[in-house]
Design brief:
By secondary structure, the chain is mainly α. Helix content is about 70%, strand content about 0%.
């Protein structure tokens, strides 16, 4: 029995070797057709190997050029994305001006795109897919693949924005408000066409309300309400704003100079008026002069601080002065873009 199995195995090996030798002796066109038949039969791995064999055996044949690209496609269909990317890169390196170069970029981009996972995980494949698709759209704006890749770029942007929101929420839940604001600002500045923008605006309102910076909170609330009046996030922001007083101003605190002035409001015991005798009069004048200078300096610093706060409050209150929301970018929806051109906003 064992001898029979051994004979069968040996026969299969011999048959395989004979088949391999037969492939090696095939003309380029015939080998291409054999590989293509395997591709249609969903024998993707076998087809990819045969396309690469053709490229090796007939490097100067016109079929070798096609085989490079078809090998990339076969690897892609076999979900062997790394080899698909390398095959596409090899095609683009040696045939950058080929009429099918746009398809090579498309295969490469799709090999990254199909590996995109949830927003909680690393988005390297998302970035690589987006870069490849953007290059395709730039080099071949009239390509039949351009419309599809532009849609996929938007989806890739949404994945990246979603990851920023996840990290921002993590910082917010742990009370790290500055880091959270930085993440939400990234979404507002870089991912304005994504669905994450509404929540990002709400989070700005929420955090500034927590910090007691009510003018800022009100500014972002106005932006959110203007552009997304029916959004659930606008409703939540409205609840936040109902609990704070936008016009409330913090009570002014007395500075050190004023406290000292109060402490020395009775100069007859500290500065030594002339009826105390001696040189107290000169000392009193010196001390009064020093105190006046100190009060003036601290008053100046306080005035500068007040001016800065007024500027910040005015900017927050007049939130619509910032061009990225005032002039109605596309992600704001509505007819803001037309109003922007008319200068009515």
């Amino acid at each position: 029995m064992k001898k029979i199995y051994a004979i069968l195995v040996l026969g299969l090996l011999v048959s395989a070797c004979a088949s391999k030798d037969k492939e090696l002796n095939l003309p380029a066109e015939n080998l291409y057709n054999v590989a293509y038949e395997n591709l249609e039969a969903t024998k993707y791995k076998k087809a990819a190997e045969q396309f690469e064999l053709l490229e090796t055996q007939h490097p100067y044949s016109k079929w070798a050029v096609k085989a490079k690209l078809m090998a990339a496609y076969a690897y892609y269909k076999d979900e062997n994305y790394d080899d698909a990317i390398m095959a596409a890169d090899r095609f683009l390196k040696y045939h950058p001006g080929n009429k099918d170069a746009d398809y090579a970029y498309y295969l490469k981009g799709m090999s990254y795109y199909d590996q995109i996972t949830s927003a909680e995980k690393d988005q390297l494949n998302t970035r690589m897919a987006e870069e490849t698709f953007e290059r395709l759209a730039m080099l071949y704006p009239e390509s039949k693949y351009t419309k599809d890749v532009l849609q996929k770029i938007n989806l890739a942007e949404d994945y990246k924005a979603a990851q920023e929101m996840i990290v921002g929420r993590y910082y917010l839940n742990n009370g790290n408000y500055l880091s959270a604001l930085n993440r939400f600002n990234v979404v507002l500045e870089q991912y304005q066409k994504t669905v994450q923008i509404e929540e990002a605006l709400y989070r700005e309102v929420e955090i500034y309300a927590i910090l007691g910076m009510n003018k800022y909170a009100n500014g972002y609330y106005k932006i959110l309400k203007l552009n997304y009046p029916n959004s659930e996030w606008t409703e939540k922001a409205s609840d936040v704003m109902s609990k704070i007083d936008v016009n409330e101003k913090p009570k002014a605190k007395k500075n050190n100079a004023e406290n000292k002035a109060e402490e020395t409001s009775s100069p007859w015991y500290k500065f030594g008026w002339p009826w105390f005798g001696g040189d107290n009069e000169e000392k009193a004048e010196e001390n009064v002069s020093e105190l006046k200078e100190e009060v003036i300096e601290e008053k100046a610093e306080e005035k500068v601080s007040e001016l800065k706060e007024e500027v910040i409050e005015e900017k927050a209150e007049d939130a619509s002065s910032s061009p990225w929301y005032k002039f109605g970018w596309p992600w704001f929806g509505g007819d803001n873009e037309e109003k922007a051109k008319e200068g009515s906003l």
